[in-house]
Design brief:
The protein has 8 helices and 7 strands. It is an alpha/beta fold. It is globular, with a radius of gyration of 18 Å.
């Protein structure tokens, strides 16, 4: 369905970002990866995508706190692949702490990576999408873009901001062939939430799996983690012709969390 299109996926060397990159590659999309990690492992992931799906894949290690490096990431993507058709803003970090103890430097980093980086990627990518008359912007927000939880001041603020940014971009691109939507996952078993599961298990004196079940029971009525594959399939749908008139939305995929 997406053969010959190019997708830039930030934070895509592991977790949700890599899962979405794999899903898009499976539809014939060329992929520009971005993220942190061991260079040899990243190269293995990049070459595996090419071999498995018969697409072209690149990598750019832009620091998503640096606007100049984000501009270079977008520029490199367009030079290597001739444009950007799909932009998935997935890069994210987390820190939990009561607000009076929240380190200001952690606040600044979370806002920079979880919110500001998406502004910069969109700012630089939209001209290429307008030129081709088609584009898909998918921002990976969170249920925390719709509701709040204690001890997550920066994360909740950034994700609410990302949902707002999604809506503004949708209004500014309406009728152009470009859509802008946010996916809002509930608990998804990734490296980002693993520290919270470990902390919960330690506090309860139980094993990791029991800690995960307790975490789910508190917020997610389905008592099941959202899978990375499910998020990838939703991203594919948003890139399909069936979603041409879906724009400006924040779509929860959260096992009922935000229905409460």
């Amino acid at each position: 369905m997406l053969k010959g299109k190019t997708a830039l996926v930030t934070g895509s060397t592991s977790g949700i970002g890599l899962g979405i990159a794999r899903s898009l590659a499976g539809q014939g999309c060329n992929i520009m990866l971005n993220g942190l990690g061991d260079p040899a492992k990243i190269e293995a992931v990049r070459s595996e995508l090419e071999a498995e799906f018969g697409i072209r894949a690149g990598f750019h290690g832009a620091d998503m706190t640096r606007p100049d490096e984000i501009a270079a990431l977008v520029k490199t993507s367009t030079v290597n692949f001739g444009g950007i058709d799909i932009l998935v803003n997935n890069a994210g970090v987390q820190h939990t702490s009561p607000i009076e103890a929240f380190p200001p430097e952690r606040w600044a980093t979370i806002i920079a990576i979880n919110l500001s980086s998406s502004f910069y990627t969109i700012h630089h990518a939209i001209p290429y999408m307008r030129q081709s008359g088609w584009g898909r912007i998918i921002n990976i927000a969170s249920v925390h873009g719709l509701v709040a939880s204690a001890n997550k001041a920066a994360y909740v603020s950034a994700k609410h901001g990302l949902v707002g940014l999604t809506k503004v971009v949708a209004l500014e691109t309406a009728g152009s062939g470009i859509t802008s939507n946010a996916i809002c996952p509930g608990w998804t078993r990734t490296e980002l939430i693993e520290p919270q599961i470990i902390a919960r298990a330690q506090a309860l004196g139980v094993d990791i799996e029991a800690g995960g079940r307790d975490l789910l029971a508190e917020k997610q009525p389905s008592k099941q983690f959202v899978s990375i594959e499910q998020l990838g399939q939703l991203a594919i749908f948003l890139c399909s012709p069936a979603a041409d008139q879906i724009t400006g939305t924040a779509i929860p995929i959260d096992g009922g969390w935000t229905a409460q």
